[in-house]
Structure formats: C-alpha cells, structure tokens
Amino acid sequence: MALSIRPETPADRAAVHAVHALAFETDAEARLVDALRAAGRLTLSLVAEAESGDGPIGHIAFSLVALTGPDGATIDGVGLAPVAVLPAHQRRGVGGRLVEEGLRRLREAGHGFCVVLGHPGYYPRFGFLPARLFGVRWEREVTDGVFLALELRPGALVGHPGVVRYAPEFDGIWRDPPPPGSAPRPGSPGDGFGSGDVL
C-alpha cells in the first residue's frame, strides 16, 4: 500500500479522534489522545495517509514517561501509546510503518528509550524486549513479557533499573490491565493501545 507518514497537524485532530474511536471497542483511546494533546504531553504524533488522500487512516502517539530508580533519581523516556488503524486498512502493515517511523524520529531527536504495554508477539519485531531484562518495570503488575522496552540510544537503560510511570492522563484509561498469567487480546484496549495482529 502506498502510504505517507507525517506529523499530525491541527486540521487532523477530528480525523485522529475518529481513527481511534473506530479502531477500538470504546472511545477511551481517542479521548486519551485528546487529553495528552491538550496537556502538551505529546512528544510525537504521526498520521498515516493512503495515496488516495482521503485523510488519516492511522495514527500513533508517543508521550513522555518517567523512570524512577531505587535512589529516587528520575530519567525521562518515551511511551508508545496509543496506535490505531482504521478497520478497513488493518492487516496491511500500516501500524508497523507508523511504529518504525516513530522510532526513527525519536532516535533522531535524541531520546534514550521507549516503552510499550503491548502484545509480546508483535512489538519484539521492532527491537522491543521484556522490560525486566533491563531491570525496569511498570508501576502496575502485568503479565511477564507484556511490558516492553527498547533502547533508542545504546546503553540508555544500563544502570538505570526502576519503575516507569506514564503521564497522569493515562490514569483514566488504565481500566483493567492484563491479569497475571494471560496475554492481552490483539486489538483490545487492554493490549496496550496498539496491537498485534490487526495492525
């Protein structure tokens, strides 16, 4: 599929909201993006457009996260969430292109690491590893392998074990994290806002 990926503009906001509202079971992710944007917490927001030029068919958001170590020292990273593709364009690699381009731009901007609460069968293809391998965990308990991390800058997580906290806007959307012993359902809101097999 011929595809262009570019930064979101103010003219895209209604379409971006619609992409998330249609891609997920509820409009929670759509409202999350609106809230992150309103709070000025979107580090990077990209839209995907098909060659037909009918407007955004996919969207990905990255926002700052804080990694707090045992000594209380904090370093900033980036969280991938959410990512969505209109149902009619899913399973065509649009989501993967958004992830790849987003990570490329984050590396160029000098960010150290990225985390995602996502499907363990999908995100490792982009270089993500279980965050526990870096001594890093999410502030909530989730299934092993569901919380993943990627060093955008080699060595960025070396010597920095700790707990990751997302922006406060996420507090209203972390409804029911995947219970221990289960994997998130691809495409579901509990999948970490972007998923596996449908993107």
Task: Characterise this structure.
- Helix 1 (13-23) runs antiparallel to helix 2 (28-38).
- The longest helix has 15 residues, at 94-108.
- This protein has three helices and nine strands, in the order βααβββαβββββ.
- Strand 2 and strand 3 (56-68) form a beta hairpin.
- Strands 1, 2, 3, 4, 5, 6, 7, 8 and 9 form a nine-stranded mixed beta sheet that branches.
- It has one domain: Gcn5-related N-acetyltransferase (GNAT) (Aminopeptidase, 3-Layer(aba) Sandwich).
- The radius of gyration is 16 Å and the shape is globular.
- Mean pLDDT is 88; it is low at 176-197.
- The protein is α+β, with helices and mostly antiparallel strands.
- It has helices spanning 13-23, 28-38, 94-108; strands at 3-7, 42-50, 56-68, 74-85, 113-117, 129-130, 136-138, 147-151, 162-165.
- Helix content is 19%, strand content 29%.
- The two termini are 13 Å apart.
CATH superfamily: Gcn5-related N-acetyltransferase (GNAT)
CATH topology: Aminopeptidase
The number of E-state strands comes to 9
CATH architecture: 3-Layer(aba) Sandwich
Percentage of residues assigned to helices: 10-25%
Q: Could you tell me the mean pLDDT?
A: 88
Give the biggest beta sheet.
9 strands, mixed
Number of distinct helices: 3
Radius of gyration: 16 Å
Task: State the order of secondary-structure elements, H for helix, E for strand.
Answer: EHHEEEHEEEEE
